[in-house]
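Cross-posting from the modeling subforum.

Setting up a comparison between two proteins and wanted a second pair of eyes on the formatting. Protein 1 (sequence, then structure tokens):
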Amino acid sequence: MILDESKIIYNLPKIISKSNDIFNYALINFPQNDMWKFCIDRVDHYKGKYIYDKKDKGYLRGTLNGIEFIKQNINTKFNFNFLIQLHTICVKDVINSENNLYSTQFGPDENIHMYDEFYINKVTKLAKKEWYIEKLIYEEDSCPNTLTKEEALNTFLSFYNPITKRRVSRIGWIPKNKCYSERIQYAKDKLNNYIDSYYKELYQAKTNEKKLEAIVRLIRYFEITHCFNDANQRTNTIMIQKLLIENGFFPCILRKSNIFAGYYGVSELVEEVKEGIQYFCSLAQNNN
């Protein structure tokens, strides 16, 4: 969807863009009783605020705690440890459908893959093109002929398994000739390097569009990395609010949080985020 730029409001006033109170300003007109709407995909809002708690007991409380953590740490430079802290807060004391507490560790247990359901028929052409440019997801049927299968599996961040219909994370598996702890450290280093690339891209961004591209590219990387056993989407859904607000944008309420899993290209994700910002602003204005 393409939004009419003349009608969308998505920037905070520049006068408060560097203030530590920017979070409160961004949400000053937003109804506090609606904070749960950041935690639940917009397509599921009609089901009520506790719909995800039916599967994960404590989901809403944990995710709202994640928002509070973002509020207290707005303008704190983002790094790997910040991501770990946010994920831990979001899943602490949350009980899954098997009546177990969610794991807070980074990466899978040794010799275990992390995977996510993936619907290949919903992927856009642009997204697939960017998979290969950024080495994000390997799909054997359409992998460039310049790469052998072994080269691809050692290069791409994730791969799509057509038998199980799942996208499998490579975190904890590259490089193969290293022990488990070394592979996990390798994954951490890769994430830190990508975060550095985000800040470089952000520094060079001269327009709102370029800033949003940097933000969604980073969130997409985290989601495709799938670096936690569970709760990747909820962590990234909260993380994007921090990145938006501290870069002078209003927060967004997304239609679906799984859009960052590799389904859309960067420019398409930017449009989704703009639409989510517009929706947030409509709620805030109606409450004013």
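Protein 2 (same layout):
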Amino acid sequence: MSNLHPKILPQQAKKCLENILYEITNKDLHNIAAILAQEQSVQVQTFGNSQGNWTWPVVCRFLHERGHKCTQASKGKQWLLNSPSFLVKPGSGFVGFVDSSTLESYSYKESQWRTTKGPLSKEEINTALQKGQTFAVHQMWAPLESFYAQNNTFHITTDNSQWTRYECHPEACWRLSPVSYDQRETAVKKFMRAHKKTPILMSNSQEMVICTPHKSGWKTSPLLNYEPLDIHETSQRAAETLLDCIVQHLSKQDHGWGVLTHALFTALYQIGGKVSKEKFSRFTDEELEILEKYKNGMYKMGCIKGKSTH
């Protein structure tokens, strides 16, 4: 039995795709419907018929087969993504919007929004996009295009796999190779410092950036920005950058380690942390006694929280 939506007109799916892509045939859509029917063990008529009134699943799968992702942009009157004016900026891989309930599509060409029926004003497009279920259509591989073009290796990290990095090498045709760095924080930082010749693609739930080696650290260039960075995450990244810069600087001269030790010791106790004597197993008893006196002096001066020990 067909589940065709009453709002979808015959040939609307074809018009929808041609408005944001290029000219296609009904046979192209019929082939997609046949694939879906075979996968779900249902009749082809579930997704359309010979009159050409194909459904949203056909349109979505057609786009996916050609390297385009459909990301939900609105839910009723609630907008879920960045503003349309931001999404259409060059280099974003943006293709257009599609209303999944009517299969009306919205493309942005030559500074003008267009539907299958004609152009729309800025006010009209804002109203239209907040009706029904709107999806943004974008090229899935656009953020990686420059790496492919230059035949470069790139690495990907994600929020839900904190200590796993996905490495993509040209000799493997950029097939994802997950590498776990769990409990290897020091090794990771050492490795990255020793291999500062290759740009790295990094992503999280807020943005996607390219990190490029630079004389003063890593230079980042945003590709996609989803939401403003969280202050906690921003502070953490800034602290890691500063530590890397300090280590690089000290490695080039013979003085300064005492200043760094003082700063790190104060910071550790200021945030409630502690360091045991076992951590300083390489120190003599006399040196440990000096450190103990130093710590008590910091307590008395109010530089660190807590009480002095005797």
